[in-house]
Specification:
By secondary structure, this protein is mainly α. The chain has one domain. Helix content is 85%, strand content 0%. The protein has six helices and no strands. Helix 1 crosses helix 6 and helix 5 crosses helix 6. The model has no long low-confidence stretch (mean pLDDT 82).
């Protein structure tokens, strides 16, 4: 249980910094913009977003909106965290029966995802205002 708690704290802190690094890389003048013309791609998605909502959502997730990017990156980070814990540490519910383990995994997954997204969003908005 202690290993899961330590891994959670490490993943939360790393997720905050990873969100900030990805955000900076996706912005105009960032590494992805310089190497892959990412800003032009995002601008073209924004232009298409007037007719198709999916393009607008994709543009927001890919660096157009702090909250959207934090939310979806939090989901990806939660999946990476779960895989790491399951393979490397073991999991809290390994010895429990089916209905109980599913409920605990769902509650913990949603909680971890929410905290990860919230911390990432806070870190993006706090560091951008400072």
């Amino acid at each position: 249980m202690l290993a899961i708690l330590i891994a959670s704290i490490i993943f939360w802190v790393a997720g905050m910094f990873a969100t900030k690094i990805l955000w900076d890389m996706m912005q105009t003048g960032g590494m992805w913009d310089v190497l892959f013309k990412f800003g032009r791609l995002r601008d073209s998605l924004y232009a298409k977003g007037e007719t198709k909502p999916f393009y607008r959502l994709l543009e927001n997730v890919l660096g157009g909106c702090e909250q959207c990017m934090s939310f979806w990156f939090g989901l990806i980070w939660t999946i990476i965290y779960y895989i790491f814990c399951k393979i490397r540490i073991g999991w809290i519910t390994d010895g429990l029966h089916y209905p109980t383990s599913v409920l605990i995994n769902m509650i913990w997954g949603i909680t971890f995802w929410s905290i990860t997204a919230g911390l990432g969003h806070w870190f993006l908005t706090y560091k951008n205002k400072a």
